[in-house]
Design a protein that fits this description.
- By secondary structure, the chain is of the alpha/beta class.
- 35% of the residues lie in helices and 13% in strands.
- The protein has twelve helices and eleven strands.
- The protein has a seven-stranded mixed sheet with strand order 1-8-7-5-4-2-3, sandwiched between helices. Strands 6-9 form a two-stranded antiparallel sheet.
- Helix 4 links the parallel strand 2 and strand 3.
- Helix 1 runs antiparallel to helix 8, helix 2 runs parallel beside helix 8 and helix 3 packs across helix 7.
- The radius of gyration is 20 Å and the shape is globular.
- The two termini are 19 Å apart.
- The structure holds pyridoxal-5'-phosphate.
Length: 362
């Protein structure tokens, strides 16, 4: 039996008729951009996350740029961001005029900590981007206690819970991606910004629409960054199922542990107080690419996502940190994503664990 790295299609099969009906409803409505579906999704997603405000935007990358702009980040400022993340977390900073300053991560949780962020702070730091990587939860309260506004990059953490609330409700402002492979995925690009601060949300709404409130006056240089009606309607069908899908991901994680995967590789470790809806199930191994090749040969999806950390990417050369980032280098060298999904079955888990066992014995 082959097992793909991820399978977004299977959990959607029972929703096929509802999704079709929602798509047709929008096609027939004559309203395609910033209409009632987006407004309804914003209400429903803010309630889900546990915040007062949600603003739909075009994707998770622009969500970060716009969130930073709303916080007043601009030329001459610095924004701290972990280097072990998807490239977009850092790429979103230079368009504001500010400079990314890379901080280290804990190689066990894959997230920044208050210590790694503190080491990157300077008097020019205007904000910190804390990434809830792979669905784990970064320690937002501890980072916020350093006295700098925290932008949660929650692109990979929809469905995760923590004892302090859901990702998206823990920092000053937060960003989501609804890229199709995400825990809550659209059928194209989409994103959202959540916050408890109505004034910040108001700035975000103006920025997402060309810096204008009324298409007549333009207050500042903004963006054309809107969630469209079709994506919002399709997301609304899925949102009521997000928690059940998150439970499916957690159950698959428990099944991996029960099946003895931890005898062969280091299992992912939830951050204190977090109950992660694993977006990617990322283990650690001393020779991950050899293991990935052996698993691929056996039909099992396996992949290192961020083998080259962001601060070592050519486009980020100008922002290279002066100090080493040892946790980042370790995470980049050892991580390996194994199959994960809301519908991953016990048989599939056993197949993956059997293939890992056979691969490490080779
Ligand atoms: C951690 C993280 N940040 C930001 C993004 C950017 O989101 P998008 O692809 O919707 O622009 C993604 C996903 O792609 C991501 O995984």
């Amino acid at each position: 039996m082959s097992v793909p790295l991820f399978d977004p299609a299977t959990p959607l099969l029972p929703l096929r008729d509802e999704l079709h009906a929602a798509a047709v409803r929008v096609l027939d409505s004559g309203s395609y951009v910033l209409g009632p579906e987006v407004e309804a999704f914003e209400r429903e997603f803010s309630r889900y996350v546990g915040v007062r405000e949600c603003v739909g935007v075009a994707n998770g990358t622009e969500a970060i740029t716009i969130a930073l702009r709303a916080l007043g980040v601009g030329a001459g400022d610095e924004v701290v961001v972990p280097s072990f993340t998807f490239y977009a977390s850092a790429e979103a900073i230079p368009p504001t005029g500010a400079q990314p300053v890379f901080c280290d991560v804990d190689p066990v949780t894959f997230c920044a900590t208050s210590d790694t962020v503190r080491a990157a702070l300077t008097p020019r730091t205007k904000a910190v981007i804390a990434v809830h990587l792979f669905g784990n939860a970064a320690p937002i309260a501890e980072i916020a206690a350093l006295g700098v506004p925290v932008v949660e990059d929650a692109a990979q953490a929809a469905g995760t819970t923590t004892t302090a609330g859901r990702p998206g409700a823990l920092g000053t402002i937060a960003t989501f991606s609804f890229y199709p492979s995400k825990n809550l995925g659209a059928f194209g690009d989409g994103g959202a910004i959540t916050t408890d601060d109505p004034q910040l949300a108001d700035r975000v709404r103006v920025l997402r629409f060309h810096g204008s409130r009324d298409k007549v006056g333009y207050e500042e240089v903004g963006y054309n960054s809107r969630l469209d009606e079709l994506q919002a309607a399709l997301l609304r069908v899925q949102l009521p199922h997000l928690d059940a899908w998150a439970d499916g991901r957690r159950a698959a994680g428990r099944a991996y542990a029960d099946a003895g995967l931890g005898d062969h590789v280091e299992l992912p470790v939830p951050a204190p107080g977090a109950d992660p809806a694993w977006h990617l199930y990322v283990v650690r191994d001393e020779r991950p690419d050899e293991l990935a090749a052996a698993l691929t040969e056996r039909g099992i999806g396996a992949r290192g996502y961020y083998r080259t950390p962001v601060h070592r990417q050519p486009a980020m050369r100008a922002f290279a940190p002066s100090a080493d980032l040892p946790g980042t280098d370790e995470a980049a060298r050892t991580h390996l994503a194994l199959p994960m999904g809301a519908a991953l079955s016990r048989e599939q888990v056993d197949e993956v664990v059997g293939a890992v066992r056979a691969s490490v014995a080779d």
